[in-house]
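User: Study the chain.
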Amino acid sequence: MTPEEGLHTGEFRLLEVDHRAILPINLNIRAVVTSADVIHSLAIPRLGIKIDAIPGRLNQVGFFALRSGVYYGQCSEICGANHSFIPIALEIVPFSVFREWLQVNSQ
């Protein structure tokens, strides 16, 4: 999570992260989810995603983003003292931008 001092104008407090997950638009995406400690329930409402992350189990969710932009979510399970401070930020971009990002970050 980005500290309040590090936020720029227009960024959301308690939702912005220091490294967003970058994903391509107009592609079927499958995410495989698990947990290392306790049960988490990850939700990204604008994409219609809510999935449980359970220790020792693999769970999967598929989605298809029709619009580029930043999609925010949080853990919606009471999984510990600071559970409300588990933000999720997905940045959906055109495939050409995703490919460039992938080439730069895979080295």
Q: What stands out?
A: The mean pLDDT is 86. Residues 95-105 form the longest helix (11 residues). Strands lie at 21-24, 28-33, 40-44, 49-53, 59-64, 69-75, 87-93.
